[in-house]
Amino acid sequence: MEDKQIVELFWQRSEEALAALDHKYGKLCRALASRWAKDPQDAEECVNDAYLALWEAIPPARPEPLIAYLCKVIRNLSLKRREHDEAMKRDSRCDASLEELAEALPAGTDVWSEVAAKELARALERFLDTLSRQDRVIFMRRYWFGDPYQEIAGRVGLSEKTVSVRLTRLRKRLRQYFIQEGILS
Question: What is the CATH T-level fold of the domain 3-86, as seen in this structure?
Answer without folding.
Answer: Rna Polymerase Sigma Factor; Chain: A (1.10.1740)
